[in-house]
Write a structure and sequence with these properties.
Elements lengths: L11 E2 L9 E5 H11 L17 H15 L3 E6 L8 H24 L2 H9 L6 H14 L3 E3 L4 H10 L5 E3 L4 H4 L4 E4 L6 E3 L6 E3 L3 E4 H8 L3 H11 L12 H9 L9 H8 L16 H11 L4 H27 L1
Parallel strand pairs: 2-3, 2-5, 3-4, 5-6
Antiparallel strand pairs: 1-9, 6-9, 7-8
Helix pairs in contact: 1-2, 2-5, 2-13, 3-4, 5-12, 9-10, 9-11, 12-13
The chain binds a DNA duplex (8 and 9 nucleotides) through helix 1, helix 2 and helix 13.
Length: 330
DNA sequence: CCATATAA
DNA sequence: TTATATGGG
């Protein structure tokens, strides 16, 4: 999932208040997959409505968005379009992994291995078109804008950040940096405690940011060279060169020997990705009626829970709009 | 993940 | 008030 630049980039813990009043371009697929992986019951099953339709992603999207707005953060979701054809091999591999995970999950449930149940269930997540369109309807009802990317969502989110239509791109993956996002925000969430897969150990998860210029300066690389390093290690478009890790990749690129590896054409996918200017970011007024319609009537959410959440949403929207117009005024 | 109830 | 448990759809 995405390029692994974790060993190379320096991250800085930030407080959510540093994002107050600022639009943040959130990679929608990335966050929805996270919700599907995490929002599950004890047997690893997803939350579903009475008709058996998955709702975990909607729960996550709804409550997370409200929490962000309450913090003054303005989420702008970016949805993927058609994946570049060069990604087909990667996507096929992911399907295989998921098929295997479903088998392992079933076996773990039958044998009652609790840790494995969770582990394998998380790997089976699949986002359908219906789940994505439900997510869009929820956002519409909340008055939260989203952008349709022609191709990769990460690329479009990075483009928004480059154009300063967004203050940052938010994702767990580092690809936005390769696509040129000047600022990447990871772990854009409130709750700070998460359980480690291994044992009953809890780690504190903090929101962090990665500044592209700082990364490049620290490594003494250009963005193009950072892309070269990533391609040698492996990205969503290529498996990487066997036996080459971050350290060796850095050396190769700095010695100017990248072109010996036949990956030159792939660079363009990151340096000139398919993005569009055809979008409008406008925050609207939430519609309690539409929210109740899609969440409660259509998908069996609890009315009392949704009502109190909507109350928070309306209040947060009012103050955030006020804050923004004030910012624009001064 | 998040909200809510309950314990401490 | 804060920490932990559990159900959510």
């Amino acid at each position: 999932m995405g390029v692994n630049l974790a060993d190379l980039v320096e991250r800085e813990a930030i407080d959510l208040s540093q994002l107050r009043g600022k639009p943040v371009a959130i990679d929608a697929l990335n966050i929805l997959y996270q919700f599907l992986a995490i929002i599950r019951q004890r047997d690893g099953e997803l939350l579903k409505d009475t008709q058996g339709r998955v709702t975990s992603h909607l729960s996550g999207l709804f409550y997370r968005s409200i929490n962000l707005l309450e913090e003054g953060v303005k989420p702008v979701y970016v949805f993927d379009g058609k994946p570049p054809s060069l990604k087909h091999e990667t996507l096929a591999k992911r399907r295989d992994v998921k098929r295997e995970a479903r088998r392992e999950w079933q076996a773990a449930v039958e044998e009652g291995r609790t840790e494995d149940i969770k582990k394998f269930a998380q790997q089976t997540s699949k986002l359908t078109d219906e789940m994505l369109s439900d997510a869009r309807v929820v956002l519409d009802s909340m008055g939260i804008p989203y952008v349709q990317a022609p191709s990769e969502g990460e690329a479009q989110a990075a483009y928004l950040a480059r154009k300063k239509d967004a203050y940052a791109a938010a994702s767990q993956d580092y690809d936005s940096l390769l696509f040129g996002a000047p600022r990447l925000v990871r772990n854009l969430t409130l709750t700070g405690k998460r359980k480690l897969p291994g044992k009953d150990v809890y780690v504190t998860i903090t929101t962090e940011q990665v500044i592209l210029d700082a990364v490049l300066q620290c490594l003494s690389l250009t963005r193009e060279q950072l892309v070269e390093v990533a391609l040698l290690i492996g990205t969503d478009y290529n498996p990487g060169i066997t036996g080459i890790g971050p350290k060796t990749a850095l050396r190769i690129v700095k010695e100017g020997k990248f072109s010996e590896y036949g990956l030159d054409e792939l660079k363009e996918l990151f340096l000139s990705p398919d993005v569009t200017d055809d979008y409008e970011i406008r925050f609207g007024t939430p519609s309690p009626e539409h929210i109740s319609e899609i969440l409660c009537e259509e998908h069996d959410f609890s009315e009392t829970r949704v009502e109190s959440a909507v109350e928070r949403l309306v209040k947060a929207t009012e103050t955030t709009i006020k804050q923004t117009s004030l910012d624009a005024f001064f």
